[in-house]
Design brief:
alpha+beta; DNA Polymerase III, Chain A, domain 2; single chain; 375 residues; 27 strands; 18% helix; 9-stranded antiparallel sheet; elongated
Length: 375
């Protein structure tokens, strides 16, 4: 095995593949990245839950296949000077050279590397920027508690030409609907994928044009989801369990509504939240086209601020976790936020608007549970 490759494509490919490596794999071979040299260079890594591949062009002198320590390869690639990099297999070691820099990589027994699942059937395609934005908007609401694995996932529901993504940690719910191009115009399917896996896929596939989405048939026991771009791919096993029903949580009517410019609202939330912590809520008082933000009571540090807003309906005195509120305001990705209320002690729903008097963009909804507070 002998080939010469450019530094930047190598770093991009190795970084993509190395993300699926486990720090404590159940098999030593899973510490490695496979370098498979045929007509192109294909790199492969896996932790048995998620597998990633990347292909790069190279000046190939001779073909071969080898398994090398993955994280070490990634560190070496990033450290090398901006010059062509040569790889040469010499017995049980791989010689890596770039300019005057030289490394010798040990190899791992490739015959111990497990068989990885094949990519499932192609289901359709979606622009990478649309997919990335949708994942970022929804994944913020996924839980981080691995003792509740179902809530660490993002529910993906396909209904013909629409994909709905949903995530919740029980304190908030994010739902996003996007259009895509299904291979089967009558396709209906649902799957649950770990949020951090989906975020990794979206982050590193952005800018690749179209992303092909692949799903295992419902008749198979092994449930897999695949994401494929021109040079990269990811296969992941789905989460077991059933995602909780969520559509009934989104109210269809309201008793009060507010429209607020996001940028100054975010600034105010961040300032007033300086005197809060995870147990101290941020209080919001809506009345007479004004919003009063308050935090802190008694002998504790306190802060207040007031904003002029567009408001209609009954007066609302409500409190939120300031971090969760900030997440939602950033995720709506619009100049203005529209907040719908059904009461002081009931969830509020955030959606986006491009201008104060414009239509509400209901393709993204962020439901936020109120917190209790002491007056």
């Amino acid at each position: 095995m002998n080939f010469i490759v450019e530094r930047d494509p190598l770093i991009d490919a190795v970084n993509w593949v190395a993300r699926s490596l486990s720090a404590r794999p159940i098999q030593t071979a899973l510490l490695g990245i496979i370098i498979d040299v045929t007509d192109v260079i294909t790199l492969t890594g896996s932790d048995l839950e998620t597998s990633t591949k990347a292909s790069i062009s190279a000046d190939i002198k001779s073909k071969g296949k080898v398994l090398v320590p993955g994280r070490l390869l990634a560190e070496i690639a990033r450290s090398l000077p901006t010059k062509p990099i040569s790889f040469t297999l010499d017995g049980t070691r791989v010689l890596v050279k770039a300019g005057s820099a030289k490394f010798t990589l040990p190899t791992l027994p490739i015959n111990e590397y497990p068989n990885l699942p094949e990519l499932p059937q192609t289901a359709g395609s979606i622009p990478s920027d649309v997919f990335t934005t949708a994942v970022q908007q929804v994944a913020i609401a996924a839980g981080r508690d691995d003792s509740l694995p179902t809530l660490t996932g993002v529910q993906i529901e396909i209904n013909k030409n629409t994909i709905t993504l949903a995530a919740t940690d029980r304190y908030r719910l994010a739902v996003k609907e996007i259009n895509w191009l299904p291979k089967d115009q009558n396709l209906e399917a649902s799957t649950l994928l770990r949020a951090r896996t989906l975020v990794d896929a979206a982050k590193l596939l952005v800018g690749s044009g179209e992303i092909v989405f692949a799903l295992s048939p419902s008749t198979t026991n092994e449930k897999l989801v695949g994401f494929i771009s021109e040079e990269k791919s990811m296969i992941s096993r789905t989460l077991d369990g059933t995602f909780p029903p969520f559509r009934h949580l989104l109210p269809t009517d309201s008793t009060a509504e507010a429209t607020i410019e996001v940028a100054p609202f975010l600034d105010s939330v961040r300032r007033v939240a300086l005197v809060t912590d995870k147990t101290v809520p941020l209080r919001l008082i809506f009345a007479n086209n004004t919003l009063q933000l308050e935090a802190g009571t008694g002998e504790d540090a306190q802060a207040t601020e007031e904003l002029n807003i567009n408001y209609s309906g009954e007066n609302i005195n409500i409190a939120f976790n300031p971090t969760f509120l900030t997440d939602g305001l950033q995720a709506i990705n619009s100049p203005f936020v529209h907040i719908s209320f059904t009461g002081d002690k009931k969830p509020a729903v955030l959606t986006g608007k491009t201008k104060p008097g414009g239509a509400v963009n209901t393709s993204y909804k962020y439901l936020l549970m109120p917190m209790r507070y002491t007056s």
